[in-house]
Target: CO/xanthine dehydrogenase FAD-binding subunit
Amino acid sequence: MLDIKNYVRVQSLQEAYDLCQNRRNVIIGGMLWLKMQNRSVDTAIDLCDLGLNQIEDKGDEIHIGAMVTLRQLELDPLLNEYTHHALKESVKHIVGVQFRNLATIGGSLFGRYGFSDVLTMFLALDAYVELYHGGIVSIREFVEMRPSLDILVRIIVKKTPMQVVYLSQRNTQTDFPVLTCAISKMNQDYYCVIGARPLKATLLLDEKHLLDSSLSDESILAFADDIAQRVTLGSNLRGSADYRRHLTKVLIKRALWQLREEHNHGN
Ligand SMILES: Cc1cc2nc3c(=O)[nH]c(=O)nc-3n(C[C@H](O)[C@H](O)[C@H](O)COP(=O)(O)OP(=O)(O)OC[C@H]3O[C@@H](n4cnc5c(N)ncnc54)[C@H](O)[C@@H]3O)c2cc1C
Model:
């Protein structure tokens, strides 16, 4: 059971940062992950008064505050137009609407969970995270960073023209994913992200330039085979490493077929 002694609605990020340097205090998002833990907390630090529940169009960038919920991401017209509804696809299987009304993007990304649909999606968007102490770092860097006593303030998505497709495989509709796959194309480069491996999501590039000339059935198959060989996969109760390798090929092929289809229809 989670036991909380004090609750503070901080009035500044500095106040939150000072409080969270004590390991017995904890930043809270929607508390959906935290509440499942067996732990005693001195002070729960709530960021809800800091205006971080907004998705803002900043011209060349979209800023997503850490307290934005998964449901806001799912419904946001700007983000969904930019991602051709891939963002909606990435969160829509997470438990249910009431859950997504509470779960925050800050809580979803800061833990860098091995099962995360959200991390897979934002890696494919080549996003940045703003940490209060650590400053702005690319999400690629953030995934590899060791956990720290910092605060995730916002996520920054640069509006680079892109195509992106998100797919996941689940044993049942709202379970944790067995595998996640997001493929984006930005500035002629393909970004392939495989998550729920069951390790945290990883980005793989087209190192052999298999997709350079065209998205033909042959090049798509070759790329899917290449990634399936290179990606590190493991086993857990949801699936074996072999099954995940098979799924990797299937999801990559489907994602690239969809990308090609959308391209041909001018989306
Ligand atoms: C039953 C269940 C099923 C789930 N299924 C999926 C799924 O299929 N796919 C998926 O992607 N996710 C899934 N999740 C994860 C979920 O979507 C959220 O990511 C998770 O609940 C954390 O979000 P939260 O806002 O509730 O964070 P909290 O539980 O409040 O916090 C989680 C952690 O993040 C820290 N934290 C929160 N906000 C910040 C911040 N701004 N800065 C620094 N640290 C912060 C907290 O201190 C805590 O350590 C599932 C979770 C549960 C409980």
Observations:
- The two ends are 48 Å apart (CA to CA).
